[in-house]
């Protein structure tokens, strides 16, 4: 009996020693000799909970089959240190939801906190590892390098990222997609309504056509359906550009006083339609002024020609600007403080070039004084732009 008790005691002692050795070895995962360990993140792993829509602490009993584990790294508090990551099986490293690189099994990977802060410019960073289930085979240590080294931290540069992060939908991005859809529908409507006139109006060579027997204004008057729809589209294009400028802190005509805070897509769409109506009214108000001045100067026959060419050139110009702004907004490119002073230069060049081209194309009859007075109608377009440039810059 005594021998049985003694044998059981030694067997229990051996098993307890083995378990203690395993626990101690797991807890004391040692980095390479040139690094001094500061903190072990083994108990800080998180998993995403779809019920709470947030990250919760990893639980061995509940989350043992989870392949994605994450944790937040404080980049400000831990600057001047480095992260050392090792997994026992081939895994993948994600930073802020973007795939960084593949982690080779049983090899330490060094990640510099200073480099992460310089790249992401955030106080806190989400680090995710995808690999085998659980966290027992994963080790992440905060270390201090014993020797001074200026070697790069993340071996792959930012240009080599494979970005598989889901697209984030912003209110302005939703507004851009909806406005693009509306403008495309209106263009398709005009094409079905009058395809011949539509194709001629979007043809830039038609702007320089000064044949009096083949003028677009003979078929398309300022109050015809085709021209009205073109004016609606131009007003929408101008509104879109103005809202983008306002979002980029370029306040033209003090539009920020009538625009909302743009906290959601609905408010931005409301501002879009308000500005569209405003620009539509202003364009036809300019036409009325042109008609009155043309009648006084006996140039009434030239008014429709001038107006149609104004609409044609404005459409072509603002479509190009709209596509450029749409490309910039979808790529989250905003105007910086250095580029804002030059944002209005394309508009100034366009209106000046069109102002000169109208003389060459239309050739209004009459004396020199009438030509001088008629130029007043064209220069009306440039005055608001010059005033807005003064206030914006």
Describe the structure.
With 393 residues, the chain is α+β, with helices and mostly antiparallel strands. Helices cover 50% and strands 15% of the residues. The strands form 3 sheets. The protein has a 4-stranded antiparallel beta sheet. A hairpin with a 2-residue loop joins strand 6 (91-95) and strand 7. Helix 6 packs across helix 8 (300-330). The radius of gyration is 34 Å and the shape is elongated. This is DUF4271 domain-containing protein. Keywords: Membrane, Signal, Transmembrane, Transmembrane helix. The chain crosses the membrane at residues 172-191, 227-252, 272-294, 315-335, 341-361, 368-387. Residues 1-26 form the signal peptide.
Average pLDDT for all residues: 76
Going across the major beta sheet, what is the strand order? 1-10-5-8
* Low-pLDDT sequence parts: 1-5, 14-27, 149-161, 366-373
β-strand percent reads 5-15%
Tally of alpha and pi helices = 11
* Total number of domains: 2
Radius of gyration: 34 Å
What percent of residues adopt helix (DSSP H or I)? 40-55%
Instruction: Describe the main β-sheet briefly.
Output: 4 strands, antiparallel
Secondary structure tally: strands: 10
Keywords: Membrane, Signal, Transmembrane, Transmembrane helix
Transmembrane segments: 172-191, 227-252, 272-294, 315-335, 341-361, 368-387
Pfam family, one: DUF4271
InterPro entries: DUF4271 (IPR025367)
């Amino acid at each position: 009996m005594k021998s049985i008790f003694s044998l059981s005691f030694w067997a229990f002692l051996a098993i307890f020693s083995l378990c203690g050795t395993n626990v101690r070895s797991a807890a004391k995962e040692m980095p390479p000799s040139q690094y001094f360990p500061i903190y072990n993140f083994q108990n800080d792993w998180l998993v995403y909970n779809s019920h709470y829509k947030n990250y919760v602490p990893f639980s061995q009993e509940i989350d043992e089959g989870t392949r994605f584990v994450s944790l937040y790294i404080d980049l400000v508090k831990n600057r001047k240190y480095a992260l050392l990551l090792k997994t026992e099986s081939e895994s993948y490293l994600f930073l802020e939801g973007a795939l960084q690189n593949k982690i080779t099994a049983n090899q330490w990977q060094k990640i510099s906190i200073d480099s992460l802060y310089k790249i992401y410019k955030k106080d806190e960073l989400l680090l995710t590892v995808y690999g085998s289930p659980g966290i027992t085979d994963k080790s992440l240590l905060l270390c201090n390098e014993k020797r001074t080294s200026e070697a790069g931290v993340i071996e792959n540069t930012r240009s080599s990222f494979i970005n598989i992060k889901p697209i984030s939908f912003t209110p302005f991005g939703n507004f851009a997609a909806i406005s693009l859809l509306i403008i495309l529908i209106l263009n398709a409507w005009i094409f079905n309504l009058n395809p011949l006139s539509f194709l001629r109006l979007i043809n830039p060579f038609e702007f320089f056509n000064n044949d009096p027997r083949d003028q677009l204004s003979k078929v398309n008057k300022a109050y015809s359906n085709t021209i009205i729809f073109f004016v609606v589209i131009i007003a929408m294009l101008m509104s879109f550009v103005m809202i983008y400028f306002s979002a980029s802190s370029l306040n033209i005509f003090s539009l920020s006083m009538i625009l909302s805070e743009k906290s959601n897509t609905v408010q931005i769409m409301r501002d879009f339609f308000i500005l569209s109506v405003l620009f539509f009214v202003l364009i036809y108000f300019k036409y009325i002024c042109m008609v009155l001045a043309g009648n006084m100067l006996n140039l009434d026959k030239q008014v429709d020609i001038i107006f149609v060419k104004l609409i044609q050139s404005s459409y072509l110009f603002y479509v190009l600007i709209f596509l450029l702004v749409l490309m910039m907004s979808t790529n989250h490119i905003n105007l910086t403080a250095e580029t804002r002073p030059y944002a209005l230069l394309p508009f100034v060049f366009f209106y000046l070039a069109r102002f000169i081209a109208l003389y060459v194309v239309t050739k209004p009859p009459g004396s020199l004084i009438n030509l001088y007075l008629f130029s007043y109608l064209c220069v009306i377009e440039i005055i608001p732009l010059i005033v807005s440039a003064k206030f914006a810059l």
